[in-house]
Each structure stands twice: as C-alpha cells, then as structure tokens.
Amino acid sequence: MVPVIARRTAWFGRTLLKDATISVPSTSFKWFLLGSKRVLSLSNAYRHAGYYALFPTVPNATPENNRFVANVCNAEDWPALCIPPKEMYEGTVRMLLEYGATIHEHMKLLERMKPEDLTFENVIEPFIAEEERVLYAFHTLWTRMVTDWPLSDELLADFMKIHELAINEVSAKWKYDVFFKAVKTLCERNETIDKWKRRFADFHYLQMKSTAMGETSKKFEQFSGHDSFVEHYILKYRLVLRNSEDTKSIQVTDRAIFKDAPPEVLRKLAVNRQTLYEEGPWLVTATARSVKPVLTYCSDKAIRATVWDKWISRAAKPHSLARVTSNARTIETIRRHQGKKAALLGFATYAEYRLAYKMAESPKIVRKFTKALARRMRPLFDDRMQAWSNFAAEKEKLYTLAPSDLYYICRREAESLHEVDSLDLMYHFPFWPTFENMLEIFSYIFGILFEDITGSNLDRCHPDIRIFSVTDPALGLNLGRLYVDPFERHNKCCTWDALLGRSSCTENRWDKVVYLFANLSVSNYPDSSTLLHYEELQNLLFHVSVLTSPISLVNKEMHQKSVRVEFFSTNVVY
C-alpha cells in the first residue's frame, strides 16, 4: 500500500509544477520525501496510523530567468557550459520534475483511450521531445559537475541526488500498468511501422517485462521487494569498498620495487604527489585507486600478495565491534535475491533472466555466439597461460602463479615477447599529436572530416579543452561536434570516459555533441606535451573508438530517437 500512496502523493505534488513560482532555491535535500507515522498500541507493538509527505521545493527556474533552461528550451546551437553552477543545478532539477509531471499527465490520458485507438504517435511519441531535452540538460550538468565544479563537502551528495532524481524521473513511466498494457498492445500488432519505432516500442516493453510488469500483483510486490534488497546491498558493497577501515598501508622507499612504473603511477602512489613522486616514498594501500597499479608494476611478490588478499577480503568495521560487515556476505546476499527475482519470472538462473530481456533476436542466438566464442578462445587462453607460467619460472623464479601475480607477469611477458620498453615507448606518443593522428586515421576509414573549431567562441570549461566539428563531405552532412577535455585540474573528478551529451534532432536543428574526458597529468615542462604511457594509450584508443561510433552513424533514425540516459558511463573519482 505504501508504494501506491507514495506514487500518487508524488504525482499530486508534481501536478502543481507547471505553474509553480516558489521563490526559495532548491537544494539536493529538499525533494519529495514520504514516511509513515506509527503509534504504540496497548500490545506494545507498532501499528501504522497514517502517512505524511514532504513535497518538493521546486526551483523557480524558467526560460525567462534561468539562462541554462533557456539554452535548452530555445534549442540553442551549443550547450551553455559556463553558466553559474547553482543556475545549472536548479534548472536541471526543475526540468526533471516537470518531465515527471508530463509523464503523469500523459498516463492519465492513456487511461481514457480505447485499445483500438492506441498508436505509437499517441502512446510513446508525446514524451520523446521533452525527454530529449531533459537528458540533454542532465548530461550537460553531469559534464560540468565532473570537470569544473566548485569543490565542497556537499559535492558528492549533490552529485548523487541529481543522479538519483534523473533515474527516478526518466524511468517512472515503466512503473505504470496502463503504459505497459498500451506498449504491449503496440508490440502484439502486426502493423507496418518504421523500423526505429518498432525497436523503440520493443525496448520499452522489454524494460517493463524485466521488472515483472504484467504479472500478478503479489508476484510484482515480491519482485519489487527483492529488487529493493539488491539495490540496498549494491550500495552497501560500494560503501564498504570506499570506507573500509581494514586497509593496510605499506610505505615503499625502494625505487627498484617500482622500476618499470610510469610517472603517472608513481604520482598516484606517492606520499608527496606534487614534487617528489619520482624519489618517493610511495604508499601502497588496498583501495580502488591504487590496487591495479600496485598489482601491475610492483616487483615485490609479498607486497602484491598482501594487497590482493586485503582487496578481496575488504570489510567495514563499524564502531560496534559486535558485528563485522563483510563484502563476501554482501555479495552472497545480492546473488540470493537476484536468483529469487529470476525464479519469480520462471527462470532457472539470473543469467537466463538477464539474457531473455536483451534486445537480441532470441536468447538462443546469443548463447550460440558465446559458446562459439568460448570454444575459439579456450585454446588461445591455454597457450597464453602456459607462456606466462614459463616466463614466471624462468625470469621471476615463480613456479606457481597466484592470482596476485597475473597482472605483473602478463605485462612483463608481453614486453619481453615483443621486445618493448614501455617507458621508452611513451616518448613517441605525446597526447595532442597522437590524438590528431588518430583522427586522420578515422577520417580515412569512415570517410568523415574532423576540423578544429576551438576558436569559434563556443563555451568551454577550461582553455585546455579543444572542440572538433565532424562532417561527412561526400553527403554534405554535419554529423556533430567532439569536445575533448584531457588534462587534470584541481576540481576535476573524472577519469577516462566518453559520453554522448546530446543526440541529433531535426526539429531542434541539433547536431550530436560527444564528450571525451581524461585526467592526464600536465607536463612539468612548458615546451613538452603530456606523454601517453602504454595503458593511457590503450584508454585513448578504446574511448575514441567508443565516441566515433555514435558520431559516424549516417543512418540516424533509430539512434536519434532511441534516447536513453547514460547514467553510469562516467567514472567519477572523489
């Protein structure tokens, strides 16, 4: 009963948003909140006596008084990245809440429609345009928050709150039974419609089926309960990794232990990261930030084993020593509830459940592909494993490979096999010349043209950022623009990533905007470009290939309409 009341109360609050003129600025902690009021009965047991609701504080952000909202709603050519942070944040909150109100109003219209009157144009299309604007605003805010946001104690909380709000508002339509029935009706018809419309309807249908929509109310409630447990324990798992007190620190003073490590790794591990990272000392801990560099570049087997053991057994020790929350038990709890979710929908395993609701033509086709891939990969893996074992025994005197040795041995064996010194190799790959050469290669392969338009007065978060236009000269098409932000800054909290910030839209005359982020250390020498070590070169190759896929698509029908939120694409480091 509580979810129903919560949903209806929330929508009651949202229906006021279209004409809201609240003057109090919003914060990330003043959105809708619902709780239950309990009283103590004579039997000393709590019973529910009622419910209370705190309605959202809606920012007074409109196109007339908020430059960021005006930029999006007026379909301006380029995102407003230099707007004051408070204005961007409040504008995005306002747009997300108004989108939630739009969805609620649309669902009320669907309730009054007859099944024979349902079409793609009156079921799905009415909210696509506003959803595109909302996602565009959210991605622009996301970009600003991870690359150029004022540092404060509330940054992480604000970041997570806007993230949570965006997920809730954009996915809210999938929780309406009337919407599920309408989309199901569209999918069951054999009408000839555009391919992208059919796939878009299928996407919504599979999303709702995967959450037990269409099942009995009892089964749906059970599924939702298990899903809530999964979300809770996933958050708990991440907090344990971040806040664990069981993180043994080892101080290393011998430079020979990290003799193969590139400057970027030494800087990451150094006690003094600004000036003495080459001389040390270096602090080795089992944290997400340092565990991979240590396992990859530390030549001391004992240190690698210690870090590995601490990492795989991370546990948080609360103030009460009576109980220790282990991530091993957390993972087992997640696995158990995932299995129960799958069983409720008739699947033997959670893997089968996940596979059934993907956009593949059928699970059988996917299984056939994965089995064939495993059959071909197994001999290669066995061959490489033998090569690693031989190298470890001959060069490192390690006769039994432990999991903690694999990162280090794989790297050393590859360098020996190909006779490559990765520290010497990096001098051949300064960032900007390497990036420009990659664009030339992509131009040749895809027949597209990249042109540096940084000097055209488009908003940038920092002067180091460069912007490129992407065109197809053969077809005379403007495919989009590429925003490249490669270097570290004191208030930048993202690592390597690529993000589709805006889809192309003919109605708004928008082209695509794609962001490429990195956090490369700036060279200490003014005349020297930042050099790319082997792993950084790998990251560059991977993420540039990711971002060229959406930008180089010429057949854009499905791509521009299939709007989805890239919520988890940016790797944020706090």
Describe this protein's structure.
Residues 294-543 form the Peptidase M3A/M3B catalytic domain. One of its GO terms (biological process) is proteolysis. This is Peptidase_M3 domain-containing protein. Belongs to the peptidase M3 family. By secondary structure, the protein is α+β, with helices and mostly antiparallel strands. Among the domains are: 67-214, Glutathione S-transferase Yfyf (Class Pi), Chain A, domain 2, CATH 1.20.1050; 248-313, no CATH class; 427-568, Collagenase (Catalytic Domain), CATH 3.40.390.10. The chain has 20 helices and eleven strands. The protein has helices spanning 2-14, 67-73, 85-111, 120-123, 128-147, 155-171, 177-188, 195-209, 217-243, 263-269, 291-297, 301-312, 327-344, 350-356, 363-395, 406-418, 422-425, 431-446, 534-552, 557-561; strands at 33-40, 46-54, 249-252, 282-285, 315-316, 325-326, 449-452, 466-472, 477-487, 497-502, 512-520. Strands 7-8-9-11-10 form a five-stranded mixed sheet, with helices on both faces. Strand 1 and strand 2 form a beta hairpin. The longest helix is centred in the middle third of the chain and has 33 residues, at 363-395. It starts with a helix and ends in a 13-residue tail after the last helix. 27% of the residues are buried. Mean pLDDT is 82; it is low at 1-48, 318-323 and 554-574.
Classify the beta-strand content into a percent band. 5-15%
Tell me the quaternary state: single chain
Unreliable stretches covering 5 or more consecutive residues? 1-48, 318-323, 554-574
What profile does the largest beta sheet have? 5 strands, mixed
CATH class of the domain at 67-214: Mainly Alpha
Mean pLDDT: 82
In whole angstroms, how far apart are the ends?
Answer: 38 Å
- Give the structural class: alpha+beta
Number of strands: 11
CATH architecture of the domain at 67-214: Up-down Bundle
- Find the CATH topology of the domain at 67-214: Glutathione S-transferase Yfyf (Class Pi), Chain A, domain 2
| Residues in helices, as a percent range | 40-55%
Number of helices: 20
| Sequence of strands across the biggest β-sheet | 7-8-9-11-10
Q: Nearest-angstrom radius of gyration?
A: 27 Å
Shape: globular
